[in-house]
Amino acid sequence: MCSNFNVKVNVLDGGDMAFSREKPNNSLPDLPPQQALETLAILRKCIAARSALAELKGVCETIPNPLIWVRAIGLQEARVSSEIENIVTTTDDLYRALADTIESANAVTKEVLRYQEALIAGVRAIESKPLLSTALFCDIASTIKMHDMNVRKSPGTKIVDGNGRTIYTPPVGEGIIRKKLANLEQFIHESGGYDPLIKLAIVHYQFEAIHPFTDGNGRTGRIINILFLLQQDLLKLPVLYLSHYLIENKNEYYLRLREVTENSQWEEWIMFILDGIEKTANDSRLRISNIRRSMDETLELLRSKIPKLANKDFVELLYTNPYCKIKFVEQHMRVTRQTASSNLKSLEELGILESVKLGRDVYFINSGLLRILSS
């Protein structure tokens, strides 16, 4: 929940219900919400979202090398998700840092790359122990911020706008926050009840409203969304990212959050999230299809022009590393540096790659892939 979340908060004061931005939202209701949520409109939207998600899952199951999609698409999600928190870097900086070392990147790029690191660590965690828990949330936030993050213990956390005005005060007190997180965990793992996509919308709101950490809540919450879809077997790979949808609809996102807090308007919030899942799933499926088509076209061009380089492993290397270095080809294909350099230059002559020298390093850029990822 970032500074744009212009929200009033339900608090109990002398037995009367009132809104106050200045008072901690310790009366945040437990889950599940005490109202009927599976309305006809929500169920219809849920069917459309599940259909789009199923089609995306099907495309994912045909992916030859999952690392391509985790690195290529996942890094774009890391960039956009961080941009929501006003942590802005460029695609070029990200992929160049990936080609070099994270340590060589600037501070902002490092923070974005840590988002991807946290996502991958979260995926591995639920593969070994498929439970979304407070401990896992803390681990995710700690990886993003690169120091130990735990549930807030001290009062004083407030969400303020650009003018320094308090617009939301989340719950305070470690015991209260942990109790609300325990309720959230229980809701996540209860079987039956809501459709998983409806549950995802509820979980996302509740985590944002609890705001358990001093920083990194928004990014942690968006990673939880992805892990939940994997846990529910609605996806096989972490390739559905809502961040682009949220940043395109930022004002409505915070409006819908506010309306749940102020007026319990769950239907509009859930419809908003379901719409995002449907659109993002369709966009992701198209992007994956375009990348696969580009790979196939590259392989066919090599077969017709340079048969000796028409190697699937070689092509996958170019799509796993949009900023490719000579040493990558040298190590991956087990050839001499001279051969690796010659091969990359041959691809540049065909228009598959573009070389650029930055400092003492030469990068061979898969510009076609970057255009697809940026579309």
How would you portray this structure in words?
There is one protein chain. By secondary structure, the protein is mainly α. It has two domains: about 10-285, Fic-like fold; about 305-375, Winged helix-like DNA-binding domain superfamily/Winged helix DNA-binding domain (Arc Repressor Mutant, subunit A, Orthogonal Bundle). It has 15 helices and seven strands. The strands form three sheets. It has a three-stranded antiparallel sheet with strand order 5-7-6. Strands 1-2 form a two-stranded antiparallel ribbon. It has a two-stranded antiparallel ribbon with strand order 3-4. Helix 2 runs parallel beside helix 12, helix 10 packs antiparallel against helix 11 (about 265-305) and helix 11 (about 265-305) packs across helix 12 (about 310-320). It starts with 9 loop residues before the first strand and ends with a helix. About 40% of the residues are buried.
Strand order of the largest sheet: 5-7-6
Task: Name the average pLDDT.
Answer: 85
Unreliable parts? 1-16
CATH class of the largest domain: Mainly Alpha
Structural class: mainly alpha
Order of helices and strands: EEHHHHHEEHHHHHHHEHHEEH
* Corresponding CATH architecture of the largest domain: Orthogonal Bundle
Q: Count all strands and give the number.
A: 7
* Largest sheet properties: 3 strands, antiparallel
CATH topology of the largest domain: Fic-like fold
Give the tally of structural domains.
Answer: 2
Percent range for helical residues?
55-70%
Anisotropy-based shape:
elongated
**Beta strand %:** 5-15%
